[in-house]
Amino acid sequence: MSVVFVAASKLPTPFGVFTMHGFLDQDSGKEHVALTLGDFSDGEPVLGRLHSECLTGDALFSQRCDCGAQLEAALRAISAEGRGVLLYLRQEGRGIGLLNKIRAYELQDGGADTVEANERLGFAADQRDYSICLPMLDHLGIRTIRLMTNNPRKVKALEGFGIRVAERMPLQFGLNPHNSKYLATKAGKLGHMLGAQHQEEAE
Question: Residue 23 gets which letter from DSSP?
Fold first, then answer.
């Protein structure tokens, strides 16, 4: 695997002082980080999240998605527990990149849903590669995780790489009038477990 550890430093945040571990994917040139809190040496399951980069939601407060709300909720949960990990993966737009994501948004402005927009641009609905997580988790000594996610594909991916998912913890935050169709599409077409309201909208 081409993902290698580069350096680590303290990262004070409103939620606590995390340790930020930097990793480089030598094949793609992309840089990923892991934020950790607490000690993992006891071998007990670690509260964690795989969070794909979303510049619009994480940094620009977009309400077209639920990403920023999920990021904040995950960091708050890790802080409250005093122990956990968040992998921040540079896979913008479910892997299509920022500019293509803007192109997809333009198609969505015209009526396409989030899956249709990606497909019209020639991409799969979700192009993310979670194999990059394994060397990051190996470096941190994490083999068992309590995963905060609504996406069953993340659970399946980690288990396929030999990481035991002891528990899937729902992370349902950020619903607003601008993203209700987006969330319904994720539930209906991508299988995300988002509760009865979105499932009903999807049907």
Answer: E
Main-chain dihedrals φ then ψ at residue 180, nearest 5 degrees = -65, -40
- What positions carry a catalytic annotation? 126, 128
Per-residue pLDDT of the chain (203 residues; tens, 9 = 90+): 599 999 999 999 999 999 999 999 999 899 999 999 999 988 899 999 999 999 999 999 999 888 999 999 999 999 999 999 999 999 999 899 999 999 999 999 999 888 899 999 999 888 899 999 999 999 999 999 999 998 888 999 999 999 999 999 988 766 777 766 656 665 564 555 555 444 444 33
Q: Euclidean distance between the first and final Cα of the chain, in Å? A: 41
80 to each of 16, 124, 161, 165, how far by Cα in Å?
A: 9, 37, 28, 20
pTM reported for the whole predicted model:
0.87
At residue 60, the 3 state secondary structure works out as coil
